[in-house]
């Protein structure tokens, strides 16, 4: 019996999405095509791989047993093709958002090396990028690795590449607007506002741990619509301060100010995560981690410190 790789790929993507419509979007085919390929594969195997209900799709026990072997089969096929077809394949990276620190790291690498082929995508968080990593739609993704479960993390390699300091975004009318820094101890008297409705889950979890650890008053009400919306809202609310990454690229405005946090400085851990090592990945890692050190006076959740692997990134 021979397997049709197009059918196997349709099964793997559908299994990752548990939604035939979403699988069709990833494969750039119609939903009907995905359904037909999976049906033909089930016919060849004489086994039902999915239970298809009115509102949900689930793997059968046979489908769950077949999935890891199907993933390995696709990987072997891709590797076989790559071994005989010369290529300078583009390094595909997921950076979460165009105004966040990871894109700055990528831009640094591009400026440093001539003809460095990189393609960037944005999937709104590391957990959302996992299916694309498994399906080799992207080669690596930036994010906070503690957002992943131990099972998810076990199938991936990762390296800490940046500890980004946190800062406060405040209105020009806020009492802290003229301060360059504020200590974490004095922050307990400041009303913090971070609208998290629809925000990236790994950022929301980090802020919750930060507030709990330092006994801070954190208001998370409101939608996380866009960075421009956030800046406009902060500018109009002189009673609140909003935690942000200090390297975030803010839209030009004279109505807000950035205040840095100290004693200690809270930092957000950015890691690069990958499943299969792309030939250009070592070059990228060397470029974006050159000079990386672990600062002495920083705060990081203990779970992040352990998961990030302090010794693995030069600190």
UniProtKB/TrEMBL annotation:
Keyword Phosphoprotein set for record: no
Sorted UniProt keywords: DNA-binding, Transcription, Transcription regulation
Pfam families, alphabetized: HTH_1 (PF00126), LysR_substrate (PF03466)
Domain HTH lysR-type: 3-60
Origin: domain of life: Bacteria
InterPro entries: LysR_HTH_N, LysR_subst-bd, WH-like_DNA-bd_sf, WH_DNA-bd_sf
Family (UniProt): Belongs to the LysR transcriptional regulatory family.
Name under which the protein is recorded: LysR family transcriptional regulator
